Amino acid sequence: xxxxxxxxxxxxxxxxxxxxxxxxxxxxxxxxxxxxxxxxxxxxxxxxxxxxxxxxxxxxxxxxxxxxxxxxxxxxxxxxxxxxxxxxxxxxxxxxxxxxxxxxxxxxxxxxxxxxxxxxxxxxxxxxxxxxxxxxxxxxxxxxxxxxxxxxxxxxxxxxxxxxxxxxxxxxxxxxxxxxxxxxxxxxxxxxxxxxxxxxxxxxxxxxxxxxxxxxxxxxxxxxxxxxxxxxxxxxxxxxxxxxxxxxxxxxxxxxxxxxxxxxxxxxxxxxxxxxxxxxxxxxxxxxxxxxxxxxxxxxxxxxxxxxxxxxxxxxxxxxxxxxxxxxxxxxxxxxxxxxxxxxxxxxxxxxxxxxxxxxxxxxxxxxxxxxxxxxxxxxxxxxxxxxxxxxxxxxxxxxxxxxxxxxxxxxxxxxxxxxxxxxxxxxxxxxxxxxxxxxxxxxxxxxxxxxxxxxxxxxxxxxxxxxxxxxxxxxxxxxxxxxxxxxxxxxxxxxxxxxxxxxxx
Length: 506
Ligand code: 87F
What we know:
The protein is an alpha+beta fold. It is built from 15 helices and 23 strands.
C-alpha cells in the first residue's frame, strides 16, 4: 500500500512538473542532450501528449494534420496504381496467427493478446494484429480463383500493436502505431518486382518531397530482410545527432512463400494451377519522428511547408498610438488573401504579447510568420520572417502572395539541402576493419565493400556489441559506386560483392 501511495504521489508530482514545464519554452539543447530535447519538443510543439501506458501516445491535431497530408498524397498515388482500400479486423485467432510459423516465430514476444471479456476468460485468447498477413491471406486464397482475379491489390490504413520491450520513443518506437499496409498478389514475379520499386519510389517522395529528408533507396541484407519474404527494399534515413540510421519504410517482395502456406493459387491461362506472387509494403507514423529529429532546433519544431498544418501565422504588433483596428483588419485581410491563394494561413489575435507569440509559433514549427504593426500599415507592407533561418524581410502587401509562395518553396529546398549536407558530412567510406571501427566510434554512416555473407554480418554484430548497440547493415544502395576488381570485404577479407551501408540504427 505504502508503495502504491508513494508511486501515486510521485506520479502526481511528475505530472505537475510536466505541466509547469510545458508552459515555458524549450529547455534542452538539441546538440547537448538530444534524447531530452526530443522528448521535450514533441510535447511542447503539441504533436503528442504522453499517455499512462508506456509506449502509447495521444496524437494531437498537429500530428494528424501532417499524417493526413502524407496520407492524401500516398492514397491518391496508389489509387492511380489501381490499388484499393479495404479494412480487415484487428483480432486474430491463435491458429491463424501460427499458420506461417517462420514469420511469426521471432516476433511472438511482441504479440499482445486479449484474454478476457468483463470478468470472464475468453474461450480462446485472441491476438491483436501486429501486421495483417495472417488476417488477409486466407481471404486472398478464397477470392483468387483464376487469372482474371489477378492482380489483387489492397491497402489498409490502420493501427497495429507490437508490445515492444526496448525503450519506447514517440513516433519512432511505439506499442501502437498508425501505418498503411499494402498487400498485393500477381500472376507473375515480374509484375510483383515492378510494384516493389514503384511503391519504394512513393516512399522516397514522401521523405524527400514532403518531409524534406534525404533517403537512400536500397535492398536489405538476407539477415535484415523480412524473414517471411523473398527480398526487402527500403528507404533509409540518417539522424546525425545520434549517428544512427533509421529505416524509413519498407517494400517487400514476398515471393511465393505465403502463397504456399495459405494456398493462394489460381488457374493460369493454360488452365494449370499456379501460385501467386505477393508483395507487402508499409510506412508509418515514424516518418514524423524522423522529421522532428532531422529538422528540429533549439527553438523547437521545424515543419517543412508542404506538411505544415499552419504554413503562415500572422501576428498583429500593437504599440502605443497604433491604429489597432487597422492592424487587425490588415491581419484578417492577409489571412483571407493567403487562404484564397491556397495557403494554410491563420492569425493569432490572442492576448499574449507579440514576443511570446513569436516564441510559441516558432516552437510549433510554423514555416513563416508575418508581422503587421503600424509601420507595416503606414508603408503598405508586411514583415515576413522565416522559421528555418530567422531571416526577415519587408514586402509590399501587393507582393505578399508571390513572396510567400517563393519563400515556402525556398524553405523546403533549404531544409532538404541542409539535411543532405549534414548527412553527407557523416558519410564515411571505409576499406578495412580498423577504418570501420574508427568510423563507427565517430557515429558515421559507413559505406563499406562487403562480401554479402550472412555469417560475416552476424560476426560484425558480435564484434561491435556494446552499450550503444551493435553495428548492422542498413541497406545495399541501388545506386552503387564502382567496385574495382580485387576490392576486399572490410570485415572478412574475402572478395567484396558490393557497397553496403552500415551503422548503428533505430
Ligand atoms: C511483430 C509481431 C508479429 C514485424 C511483427 O513490413 C509479426 C510481426 O510480421 C511481423 N513485426 N513483422 C514484419 C512485418 C512485415 C510486413 N507486414 C506488412 C511489412 C509491411 C507491411
